[in-house]
Amino acid sequence: MKYGHFNRETDEYVITRPDTPTPWINYLGQKDYFGMISNTAGGYSFYRDPRHRRITRYRYNSVPDNQPGRYIYIRDVEKEDYWSPTWQPVKKPLDSYECRHGLGYTRISSAYNGLNSEITYFVPLDQTLEAWRVVLHNTKEEPVKLQIFSLIEFCLWDALDDMTNFQRNYNTGEVEVEEGVIYHKTEYRERRNHFAYFACSEPLAGFDTSREAFLGSYQGYEGPQVVRQGDSKNSIAHGWAPVGSYQVQITLAPDESREIVFLLGYSENPEYEKFSEPGIINKSRARETIEQYLDPAQLDADFEDLREYWEKLRSAYQVETPDRDVNLMINTWNPYQCMATFNLSRSASLYESGIGRGIGFRDSNQDLLGFVHMVPERARQRILDLAATQMKSGGAYHQYDPLTKEGNEKIGSGFNDDPMWLILSVAAYLKETGDYSILEEPVVYENEFGTEEPLHEHLERALQYILDRLGPHGLPLIGHADWNDCLNLNCFSKTPEESFQTHEDKTDGETAESVLISGLFTLAAKEMANIAHNCDYLGDPESYRKHAEKMMKNTMEQAWDGEWFLRAYDHFENKVGSQECEEGKIYVTPQGICTMAGMGREDGRAIQALDSVREHLATKHGIMLHQPSYTRYHPELGEISSYPPGYKENGSVFCHTNPWIMISEAMHKRGDRAFDYYKRICPPARESISEVHKTEPYVYAQTIAGSDAPTFGEAKNSWLTGTAAWNWVAITQWILGIRPEHEGLRVDPCIPSDWSEFEVTRKFRGSTYEIKVENPDHVSSGIRKITIDGESLEDNLIPVSEDRLWDKNLGCHPRCR
């Protein structure tokens, strides 16, 4: 069943019925101010940090679902009838409904009883506000008298405190209403220097800032007393729950239209006023902004700027292939999702409350693989921010706070794979930009002033971190966990709090080893060798190659299980992911990472591992994380076995890992297999089974229920997942085969054999490459010849244009040699 369709002309997903299986969301904002918005206007907004700067409330796991949000109520005065043009929260049946999720905006249109409405929500570039543009059109032959009520519910800034500390929060709500603008200043008297505001372009017939006054006692969003009665109370919140609501009254003649603009924004006093008189906010800058952005002409210009912004980002890689789903994802939705993961990591979605997680170290280093080609300058800063949370030991805080950029001490380190991802992200940045100067950039450890060392020293320490932590079989110690956060092989006797390492890592008594990290280390060491080959900052390339070769040799000796790679050794040195195991015999993760690292390529064991994946783990809905699923709790394995079979980390289709197998299949020149796996989890390819898949058909999900689950094929955790970046790498760099390397742009397709041709436009280091690949013999791989501007090349590596290589204005930087 389909709930909408893609519009390639407008680059929108058009939802045609409001009751989607789950809320299908979009994101507003590009830099500091962000909002999550569903197809029925549910969601919330925040400034930079979804916990500490939450602007509006949102209730997770509530009934009804997906409330509150950015609400408009329309009331026909004469008929005393009211409805929501976004369907929720009133949920009155509409004569027509359409939601268009676009790049950085959402537009919801509907019709009810002769009145057409259209609401466009977006955040202007570089602004800390969102605009709601409400256009009403009377299609009837007689005039209609209308009352329009807006509603947002303010959060008391700290989202966790807001939902838990009621003995305080029931007393602190505080607002001001001045010149028709509602200012939310709760806790300002604590000498915080930020506040929110809500404004309207129309003369007001009334307003409300008290939730109880607006809704009524024991009433919900679906039927507020103010809307039912058609009369705002002009209430001022004193303690209790502050809201922002305006009443506008208009009369529309037949065929007349009217636009109303609402602004929700965030503002701060100038820093020098931070310690001014408590409770006094500086409204001057906010008023200037409000006056500017209540003007529809200004919003027209800003909306066009927003379109141009996304067009520029997407233009870095565009394709035309024989496959509609590939074109949709590469040209629009995959890079769009990659930018969301860059902005938000895993912090704010329908599945992440914005409270428990900041910016993830491993997460963001992987996310960088998907956005570095679009915003290399911001990728550079993200690398430096991440490196600054690294510890002197070479380990890293698993997460850091987006406001302070300080590491999260509660979570700490102990995820022993984390440091390797920094090496891989830096390598990706260098290949994309040629900016080797980043390696000399001084970066602190643990955000501690005075500990600065060049970034390349951070990379050296990251590699050494693993070499200092090898277990009984010579494989890397797993610590608290590796990429599988829930595979806790050393935590069987600890409480969850004790299981997290804080500050410098201790490995006494911890013997569990990770085969995934051995593959990851091998990849990282090879990348270090390549970097060293291209610059003088690092040591001898051969030394890194020897580290990689030694780890490969030891892994093949200690972790090959006959037909696939082991997953790990637990604390007791028992095998995990082995044919000897009753449950969890084979894991996809080591098969992907180890074969990507080149293990088993010479003797055919890599092919055997990939074939084992196809035999034991591949399903019509994607490749499962492991099989068989765990049917009981295993304390020696930790949280992974706490999930029911087939869900999340216990045998689901963990989509994040599927691209690792796609890449390995492409490396081994099996293009039909690689593409087959790509299509199994590709969102548009699953659009026709939306009633099964449930999450959005335009972005990747983290997991899909595995074959052991009763809801096999049902997706969860969409949007903020490393699946986005890794699928981008798999399809663009390995299947289509257009990938950056230190010396230039490699053209090495490994495509489905039934493709006759495809075209790629790729911007790379200041040049634009128009690439056409012809496949008249219908093979999957192999370059017969390559020409550039009519001249044949001896190799399939296109060198960087010399006249563009060092132009910093184009985002390119000098190499070391």
Automatic annotation (TrEMBL):
CDD domains given in the database record: GH94N_CBP_like (cd11754)
UniProt xrefs under Pfam families: GH94_b-supersand, Glyco_hydro_65C, Glyco_hydro_94
SMART domains the UniProt entry points to: CBM_X
GO biological process, one term: carbohydrate metabolic process
UniProt superkingdom: Archaea
Sequence ranges assigned to domain Glycosyl hydrolase 94 supersandwich in this UniProt record: 12-295
Domain Glycoside hydrolase family 65 C-terminal: 739-779
Swiss-Prot/TrEMBL keywords: Glycosyltransferase, Transferase
GO terms of molecular function: carbohydrate binding; glycosyltransferase activity
Domain Glycosyl hydrolase 94 catalytic: 309-737
Protein name stated in the entry: Glycosyl transferase
